[in-house]
Design goal:
179 residues, alpha+beta, 6 helices, 48% strand, globular
Length: 179
């Protein structure tokens, strides 16, 4: 079973690897910047206590639109921006693969806060991965007040639209390119 999960995740990661991390045209960069700022505003509106992470964190990655879909094998993809001390320093993309009970589709947003420079630098290194289901916190009023960093990061997600039944194992992989 573990081997089947590993193979499925690798296949989904390879499928997402062909997608560009940074938008190639200026118009695409402008759209992504606008979507990122809108997502940040929505996170802050949904939970004003998340502001403490914007103030304390060394940096963060915002992925404003992620599509996730699955039928037994699932996958997700999105791209976003990376900030260091409130300055946009690059772009990232996220691919996710899962295997297990997974059915449906949804759009969601994700923000990852990095506690210090070491943690952000680790994210910016080649092929950063983690198991999102274990670490992500659903954003709603007051949740960030009780949240803390785990392994140097705090991850928040916000569902946008869709319906997904997901009790699957998998992880997320990020690629980073400097601005």
């Amino acid at each position: 079973m573990r081997q089947a999960v590993s193979i499925s995740i690798v296949m989904l990661f390879l499928a997402g690897a062909g997608c560009s991390t940074a938008p190639e045209e200026q118009e695409g960069k402008d759209v992504l910047a606008s979507e990122s700022q809108e997502a940040i505003a929505l996170f802050k509106a949904k939970d004003p206590t998340i502001e403490k992470f914007f103030q304390k964190s060394y940096g963060y990655a915002i992925v404003p639109k992620i599509f996730k879909g699955g039928f037994i094998v699932g996958g997700a993809y999105g791209h976003g921006q990376v900030y260091e001390k409130d300055i946009m320093v690059g772009y990232c993309n996220m691919t996710q693969g899962t295997l297990g009970l997974s059915f449906g589709g949804e759009f969601y947003r994700e923000i990852i806060f990095f506690k210090d420079k070491y943690d952000l630098d680790a994210f910016k290194s080649d092929e950063y991965t983690f198991a999102a289901q274990v670490t992500a916190i659903a954003a709603y009023a007051g949740v960030a007040a009780k949240a803390d960093y785990k392994d140097g990061m705090a991850v928040f997600i916000m569902a946008e639209v869709g319906l997904m039944v997901d009790a699957a194992a998998g992880g997320q992989k990020f690629n980073y390119v400097p601005k």
